[in-house]
Amino acid sequence: MVQSSLQQISELAPNLAKLDDRVRQLEATRDQPGSVDRTGFDVIELRDVGYSYDDRTPAISAIDLTIRRGEVLGIIGPSGSGKSTLLQVLLRLRLPTTGEVLLDGLDYTEISAAAWTRLVAVVPQEPQLIEASIADNIAFLRPDVSRVDAERAAEAAHIAGEIRELDDGFDTALGPRGSGLSGGQKQRVAFARALAGNPQLLILDEPTSALDAESERRVRETIAELKGRVTLVIVAHRSSTLEVCDRVVSMAAGRVQIPDGA
Ligand code: ADP
Ligand code: MG
Predict the structure, then answer these.
(1) Ligand with smallest separation from the Cα of 76
(2) Which atom of ligand 1 is nearest to the CA of 205?
């Protein structure tokens, strides 16, 4: 046994060295946010923003876009046109490889990580629920989100009633990846999670594309109720979801097409 373990270790050693290199590479490019505290904004400006994964053709390029406080901006475009990449850059999950993102004139990387995570929230395309109670899924490791906040967020996301009908209500334990809830319910729990921190900027990546009609209607109601209070950027396909937007821009091949007259 010792002999064969030694054999395995010597076979794996080169991979460990590679892994070590990769970790060092990634750490070198890690977002190193600044220390400025910001609790709100009037305008977010993207100036000539581009992002490339590796050294290939940029996934997005030359994006100039201004988003004003309280606006609901819709983004449409075919699959692969760069919508999710743009959202990830907006969220600061990926930093632009060209250009800059300014928050009231301040480069967004200057803002501290703590302030940034209070400012922005996302409802991802696939709700990322964990094996924990529904209340914990909504609070999601944020000690400042109380039980009352979690329930209020669930009300706002039009999921509270369905949660209370479960035997253990908000204490109901979900299985891996949130099993125990329907797809539409998971999406609304993810929405509640995003709302629980009272974000100023809420980003939604195709929040209704995979939903049944009833869940879609409820998500749409939530969006309509947030309008004017929270700045929303929504990637959407359904025309019913797009109707709530103040402005819709379309993307093609990594660029934003500005409509005539805008
Ligand atoms: P959309 O959301 O509009 O479908 P994406 O932003 O997901 O578009 O993708 C834009 C381009 O970037 C596509 O060519 C896609 O293959 C590429 N891409 C997306 N994510 C990654 C990734 N993690 N690594 C490498 N390439 C990616
Ligand atoms: Mg996408």
Answers:
(1) 1
(2) 2
